[in-house]
Write a structure and sequence with these properties.
Order of helices and strands: EEEEEEEEEEE
């Protein structure tokens, strides 16, 4: 079993910053991809940022220049630094990881989600 635990959501005023963290634990051999998705009320879940093996990163156009994804591979943890937040960034943010387990299986794992609310 592999679990993802997210922390760092909350309420912030427009223009402010938040930092999300997501720690993976369990029977992990390696983690190929870690990323963040979000889902706003009435909308589909969308990719926010993703970090692949080799430190390649991808960002949604809407967050480029404002959000930064980073990883601590030793801690199996991914971070999302969010600056210059806008009300349209309000959503539940989910951590996702593609994990190679110690039992030689590949799992796509989701965290429970953390709410980010940006007030205008």
């Amino acid at each position: 079993q592999v679990q993802l635990v997210e922390t760092g959501g909350g309420l912030v005023q427009a223009g402010g910053s938040l930092r999300l963290s997501c720690a993976a634990s369990g029977s992990i051999s390696s983690i190929n991809v870690m990323g963040w998705y979000r889902q706003a009320p009435g909308k589909q879940r969308e990719l926010v940022a993703r970090s692949t093996t080799g430190d390649n990163t991808n960002y949604a156009d809407s967050v480029k220049g404002r959000f930064t994804i980073s990883r601590d591979n030793a801690k199996n943890t991914v971070y999302l630094q969010m600056n210059s937040l806008k009300p349209e960034d309000t959503a539940v943010y989910y951590c996702n990881a593609l994990v190679r387990t110690m039992f030689w299986t590949n799992l796509a794992v989701w965290g429970q989600g953390t709410l980010v609310t940006v007030s205008s």
